[in-house]
Write a structure and sequence with these properties.
Jelly Rolls, 2 helices, alpha+beta, 4-stranded antiparallel beta sheet
């Protein structure tokens, strides 16, 4: 499923905390996959319950087509659901859990697993789930000519 996102706020992405987060994440990924240049994309997601049910992954279980995916839970407010499901791409084994603590992070090896999040439902009006998804790919951005 092709998605389009608005650009992130330049005041945030130019700040020292953002740069430190990306350097830390690239260091962790290089420890896992070998030191290299990482092509990084970041997307902010707010899934709300304004229409009753919010769908974090409307495409269902999927891969992102990158090397590694970091999913940061930023906030949860007045919702239930939003369970994360991670499955072995080569078989039925998997894990299910719910990220509940702000700035919890899940790091996925996109070549080895597929993932999804279940819909969220409101516990009261104004429920939402905010995540920051950062993808890392060696060799270039998706869609770049090889």
């Amino acid at each position: 499923m092709q998605r389009h996102f608005e650009a992130m706020d330049a005041a945030m992405t130019c700040g020292a905390p953002w740069q430190a987060l990306l350097r830390w994440l690239a260091h962790v990924c290089s420890d896992l996959k070998g030191a290299q240049r990482w092509f990084i994309e970041a997307h902010q997601f707010r899934i709300d319950t304004a229409d009753g049910i919010g769908r974090p992954t409307p495409e269902g279980a999927h891969r992102d087509g990158v090397d590694l995916v970091a999913v940061f839970l930023v906030a949860r407010h007045a919702i239930k659901g939003g369970e994360t499901r991670v499955f072995d791409a080569a078989g039925p084994q998997g894990q299910r859990f719910t990220l509940t603590e702000p700035w919890s992070v899940l790091l996925l090896d996109d070549e080895r697993v597929i993932h999804e999040s279940t819909p969220i439902q409101p516990l009261e009006a104004g429920g939402y789930r905010d995540t920051l998804v950062v993808t890392l790919r060696a060799g270039g951005f998706q869609g770049d000519a090889a």
